[in-house]
Design goal:
- The complex is a heterodimer of chains A (about 200) and B (about 190).
- With about 200 residues, chain A is an alpha+beta fold.
- Chain A is built from three helices and seven strands; from the N terminus they run αβββββαββα.
- Chain A has one domain.
- Chain A is elongated and about 80 Å long.
- In chain B, strand 1 and strand 2 form a beta hairpin.
- In chain B, helix 2 packs across helix 3, helix 2 packs parallel to helix 5 and helix 5 runs antiparallel to helix 6.
- The chains are: A alpha+beta (about 200), B mainly alpha (about 190).
- Chains A and B meet through helix 1 of A and helix 3 of B.
Chain lengths: ~200, ~190
């Protein structure tokens, strides 16, 4: 037993020391930079949500982790933030929604009005969709048709008039999968978040 | 400094093809990727060179991977903290530097057999060769796909962007043409 332990230490001492040193180095850097990384994430969320809820002076966390079933039996905990104006009046709600896109996962910031009846739009937090096709989900032409749309199940079609604001969303030409992904993520999250907030008596 | 031309990792050794094809749709992400690779290459070569006499031969690949993974994680954290937009643009390709053949190849072929000075020079040469190649590829693709270089408009208004150059097909075509050109040049030199 003693010989085995000695052999183990003789062979692996460098690996053990390197692991400890590298671990300490990474832990130190993570501790130093983590507040900045979190600040960047919050700033981006606030920037996107603030563009949709322009009356909001700040966003306050209302629910830290609301469980949402995001498909294939996977549950995601999403943070619900309340947008309040300078007088402290609620002007809307914002939260992160995510799901599979065409090339990679897509993460959206979704904003709804104070009564949770109308969408105020979505902003793209992360996507890796095909340049020239799927990434048109970031364009105003596609996104504007969600502003004022009912916060209920939306349906996607290949044709229609994008200037008409209702529950019918016109897909991006050449990027049906991405368009379906956006509508699916919104339908999945908006419904469940509203149910969760009603349960908590927030709306 | 053989990495700049004679042993250029992309054009002559055909290493690091994954980022070469994936992040060269525009110059800025290509440059960021190149600088990240230089940082990881230089740091891992220094560490591997310093511990080369202590390495057990059957554990060396494990040690190389551990060292490389540490510096890639530092690069990833740095980008997330200080250049968050670029970090998002590059997505998983920064963490994937861990499996970039160029870095483990230089640890094995150079740093584990040479002193710190030679290892650093080798890393800088290889890293610069990789970065310059990525930027050239990205410059051609961005110019043809958008009419811009590093987001600055350089083509006349009449220019019709060739969107396909921003897609994977554009990466394969551009890389193939540049490789053919390099082969032609080196054949003439020989």
């Amino acid at each position: 037993m003693h010989r085995q332990a000695r052999y183990f230490l003789e062979e692996s001492w460098l690996l053990l020391i390197a692991t400890i040193l590298f671990g300490v180095l990474l832990a130190s850097l993570d501790a130093a930079w983590r507040p900045r990384i979190i600040h960047n994430e919050i700033a981006k969320f606030n920037r996107l949500a603030g563009a949709m809820l322009s009356e909001a002076a700040e966003f306050r966390t209302q629910v830290e982790a609301l469980p949402v079933e995001s498909g294939k039996g996977k549950t995601i905990a999403t943070e619900i933030k309340k947008g309040v104006d300078a007088n402290g009046r609620t002007v809307g709600w914002a939260f992160i929604a995510e799901g599979p896109g065409f090339a990679d996962k897509i993460r959206l910031v979704v904003a709804v009005d104070a009564a949770f009846e109308e969408l105020r739009g979505f902003g793209v937090l992360f996507s890796n969709e095909t340049p020239g096709f799927g990434d048109k989900m970031k364009t105003d032409d596609f996104r504007n048709q969600f502003v004022g749309a009912p916060a209920s199940d939306l349906e996607l079609g290949k044709t229609g008039d994008r200037s008409v604001i209702d529950d019918h969303i016109v897909a991006i030409t050449g990027a049906t999968v991405t368009s379906e992904a956006v509508v699916d993520v919104l339908n999945r999250f908006v419904g469940q978040v509203r149910a969760g907030m009603k349960e908590k008596g927030l709306i | 400094m053989a990495g700049l031309w004679q042993e250029n990792p992309v054009l002559r050794l055909l290493l690091g093809m994954c980022p070469t094809l994936a992040v060269t749709a525009a110059v800025k992400p290509a440059l960021t990727m190149g600088l990240s690779v230089i940082f990881v290459l230089v740091c891992s070569n220094i560490v591997v060179s310093l511990m080369r006499n202590l390495l057990k031969s059957h554990l060396r690949i494990l040690m190389f991977t551990l060292t490389i993974a540490t510096f890639v994680t530092i690069a990833d954290l740095f980008l997330k903290a200080f250049v968050p937009d670029m970090s998002e643009t590059l997505g998983p390709y920064i963490p994937l530097i861990i499996v970039n053949c160029i870095i483990i190849c230089r640890a094995e072929a150079c740093a584990s057999k040479n002193g710190v000075f030679i290892s650093v020079i080798d890393a800088v040469g290889m890293g610069l060769g990789f970065t310059i190649t990525l930027c050239v590829l990205a410059g051609v693709r961005e110019l043809l796909a958008t009419g811009k270089i590093a987001e600055q408009v350089v083509m006349p208004q009449a220019f019709v962007p060739w969107a396909a150059m921003g897609l994977p097909v554009g990466a394969f075509i551009t890389l193939g043409l540049i490789l053919a050109l390099v082969n032609q040049v080196t054949k003439k030199q020989a």
